[in-house]
Amino acid sequence: MAKPQISLLSDLTPPSLERTWLTAPHPTLPIVATCSSDKTVRVYSLTNFKLLSTISGGHKRSVRTCAWKPHIQGESVLATGSFDATVGVWRRWDSYGGAAGWGAAAGGNATESNVSRDSSEEDGNDDDAGEDDEEWRFAVLLDGHDSEVKSVSWSPSGMLLATCSRDKSIWIWEDLDDGDNNFETVAVMQEHGGDVKCVAWHPVEECLASGSYDDTIRLWREDLDDWGQVACLKGHEGTVWFLDWESTDNVPRGSSDSTQWREQRALSGPRLVSCSDDRTVRVWGRLPKDNQPPAMSSSAATGIPSIIRPTGTDETWEEDAVLPHAHELPIYAVAWSRRSGLIASVGADGRIVLYEERLATETDPDAMDTDSTAKLSLRTEWSILAVLDGAHGIYEMNHVAWAKRADRGSDSSEEVLVTTADDGSVKVWTLQR
Amino acid sequence: MEMQNSNPTILNAADLPTRLRPTARKPDHVGIFALPSLSPDFLPEASSDSEDENLLEEPIDEQEIYDIRVVLILDLISDHADLIATISDPEHPISLGELAVVSLPDISIKPTLPNVPDSPLKTVTVLITPTITHCSLATVIGLGVRVRLEQSLPPRFRVDVRIKEGTHSTGDEVNKQLADKERVAAALENGALMGVVAKMIETCR
C-alpha cells in the first residue's frame, strides 16, 4: 500500500498580496472566503480556483476571521471580524448574476453543483457578474468589542453569532432575522483571563467552545436564559489558538462493529480538538452525565466549588488524547473532517500534518477488571497519516479547513484541504491514499 | 576584515521581498527601529513617477545593505564574535548594543526544523536584558526588536525575541506577548501603539 500523500491540487488565484489569516468554506456552495490583512475578504471558486469577488470597504484594519451563516436559502451571509474591533455582516443573493455568477466563474462544469437551475436561467439577462464588487451588500456592523476581534462563529441553527476579542470577552448576538438586519446582544461572557482567540459552536447543540491566551478552553451553555460557563478545560501550556468539533456521526477506522462506539458517543456527544502554542494538538471528550464521578472532579473542572455553582449544567470534560508530536513551532489551526474523521493541523513551521484515529485492537480483555472493560475496549489510537513540509514554501500557515472537492462535479464525495498562509497564498490539497 | 559571506542563499534577492516591502525599506529616523508606514497607499511601487524613483533609490539601497549586513552578522555571529561591533552602523544612530538590551552571546541562530535537513527555515533567538525593569517598556522594546528583525530578515527566518531569564519580574508575561503573532500583527496596525514604540525608543538614546 502506497504511503498516503498530500498533493497540491491548485492555488486560489490571484492571491492576496498580504498575509491571509483564514479561509472559510461555504456550507453548501463550492466557494470559500479568505480574510486578509489588506482589509478585504476574497471569495474564490473551488470549482476552478479563481477569484469570484472581493469584499472591501467595511473594515479599517486586517480582517482576521469570517464565517458563513448556515441554513439560509437563496442568499449567502458572511460575518467578518476585524482588528478594528468590529464585526461586519455581508449579504449576497446567490441568484445575482445567476448560477453562472458562481458557476460560470466556476468553470462551466458546475451545473450539477448546489446552485439551482432556476437561477441559472434568470442569468440570461444579467450575465455581467464581472461587477462583483457591487454584489455584496454590507448589512450591519456589530460594535461592542473594545479591541481586535479574533474569531466569529454561527450557531448550528444560524440564529446566534458568537464573537470574541483581545478584550477577553465573548459576545453572543442573536440574528433577529427581521429583514432589517437587527442583531441583539444575548450575552457577554468575561471569564477568560486573556485574549479569546477562537470560538466554535457544537455541531448540533447550542453549546459554545472558546480557546484563549489564558491557555484554557471553556464551554458555555444557556441555562434559564443565562449564558454561563459549564466547563473549563486545562491542559495546554500555551495559548489555545484554534478549536474544532468532531461530527456527530464520526466512527474511527478499524471498527468492524461500530455499535458500541456509537452507543458511547451518543451518551457523551462529539469531542473537541484544540491546538496550541505549546506545539500540541489535544482531543477532549465529555464524560457521560450518568458516568460522572461525584462532585469533586466536577468542581475541579470549573475551578469553582460546586457549592457555589449549581452543578446542574456543569459538564466534566477530560483530555481524551494528545496527538503524536509533529510540530516544532506554534500550531495555529486544526480542522476535524466531517467526512473522513481525519484531523489536520498547520502552524508556524509551515507543515501540514494529518492524523488518523483507529480503534485499538483489544489486546487482552480478560486482564482488565470487569469495571473498565467497556471503556478500554473502545480505546482509540491516533497516528500520523501524512506530513508535508514547506507547504507554502518558507511561509507560516495560519489556517486549515476541510471542504468538499468541487472541481470534478458535485457528486464527488472526495474532500480537499484548504490552507492559508502569511504570503497571502491559499492552496487546495488532496490526500492520495 | 575578511568577513565575506560564504553562504549565497542569504544574499538571494528572491529571499527578500515579502517582509521587505517598499515601506519597510524607506529611510526612517528612529534609528534601527524601522516602523512600518501606516498609509494604505504604499503597495504599488510608483515606478512610473521617475522623480519619486530617484528620491527613493538611494535610501532603499542603503537600507538594503544595512539589512543584509545585519543578516550576515547574525548568521556569522557564532564564528566571528568580533563582528558585533559592526551592528553599530554609523548611519543609524542607535544600535542593538547601544540600547544595552542585546549583547552578542544573547543572539543565536539555529535551524528551525533540525529534522528536515533541506529546510531553509532558521530561528533567530534574541534575548533582551531590559535596562529598565518597567514592564511596559520592556514589552515595547521587545516589540521594537522583533519588528525590526522581521523587517530586516528574509521571511525564512523565524524571529524569537525574549526577555533574558531572571532579568525581569514579569518576563514570562512579556515573552508570551512578544511571541504572540496575532498581537504583534495587530500592534503593527495600531498607529498609536507604534507611535509609543517610536517615542520610547527615542527616550532610550
Q: How would you describe this structure to a colleague?
A:
The complex is a heterodimer of chains A (433) and B (205). Chain A is mainly beta and 433 residues long. Chain A has a single domain (5-432), classed as Methylamine Dehydrogenase, Chain H. Chain A is built from 5 helices and 28 strands. Chain A has helices at 99-103, 117-122, 259-268, 295-302, 370-376; strands at residues 5-11, 20-25, 31-36, 41-45, 51-55, 63-68, 75-82, 86-93, 137-143, 149-154, 160-165, 170-175, 183-189, 196-201, 207-212, 217-223, 226-233, 240-245, 272-276, 281-286, 317-322, 331-336, 343-347, 352-359, 380-388, 397-404, 415-421, 426-432. Chain A has a 4-stranded antiparallel sheet with strand order 1-28-27-26, with no helix packed on it. The termini of chain A are close together. Mean pLDDT of chain A is 86; it is low at 97-101, 103-133, 294-300, 306-310 and 370-376. By secondary structure, chain B is mainly α. Chain B has one domain: 2-Layer Sandwich (GMP Synthetase, Chain A, domain 3), CATH 3.30.300.130. In chain B, 39% of the residues lie in helices and 9% in strands. Chain B has 6 helices and 3 strands, in the order H-H-E-E-H-E-H-H-H. Chain B has helices spanning 22-25, 50-76, 135-152, 171-179, 181-189, 191-203; strands at 107-111, 122-128, 157-163. Chain B has a 3-stranded mixed sheet with strand order 1-2-3. In chain B, helix 3 (135-152) links the parallel strand 2 (122-128) and strand 3 (157-163). In chain B, helix 3 (135-152) packs parallel to helix 4. Chain B is globular, with a radius of gyration of 17 Å. Chain B starts with 21 loop residues before the first helix and ends with a helix. Residues 1-66 and 72-93 of chain B have low confidence and may be disordered. Classes of the chains: A mainly beta (433), B mainly alpha (205). The interface between A and B is medium-sized, with 33 and 23 residues. Chain A: Belongs to the WD repeat CIA1 family. Chain A: Keywords: Repeat, WD repeat. Chain A: It comes from Penicillium alfredii.
